[in-house]
Please model this.
Amino acid sequence: MNKNQKKEKRAFVTLTMAGWLLAVLLVFFPDMPGPTHLMDMIFKPLGKLLEK
Model:
């Protein structure tokens, strides 16, 4: 990366830290629900509402 690519560097560091944090959380809490469980919690009531 060049010196003048500050936004790209910030995005790279942010994504790297987020990945590192998720990896550490999965090591300590292996039974942690994944993102599909979150989406299911959000959209399941909406699906039931739309069925009626």
User: Anything to note?
Assistant: The CA atoms of residues 21 and 33 lie 15 Å apart. Residues 6-28 form the longest helix (23 residues).
